[in-house]
Amino acid sequence: MKQQLKIIHDEMVGVVKVKEDSQLNKIAAEKVIIDENVTARLFGSVKTIILKKGAKLFFHGIVYGDIKNNGGEIFIFSK
User: What are the residues facing 30 on neighbouring strands?
Assistant: First the structure.
């Protein structure tokens, strides 16, 4: 059974690497990397998203640049 998402309310900027199942409520990052087999829910804006194999991303916001999917799943909910 998968654990619940760790909820992070702090603002995240720069390069963000998500290593465990998490929800980030305030993201304004240059790059987000979702590790293998990690589930993430992000709220905000990102320039570049990279998903590793088996990663799952639920993104609520705006992507300004590239999305590189290396074998994950991505769901985008645009504002």
Answer: none
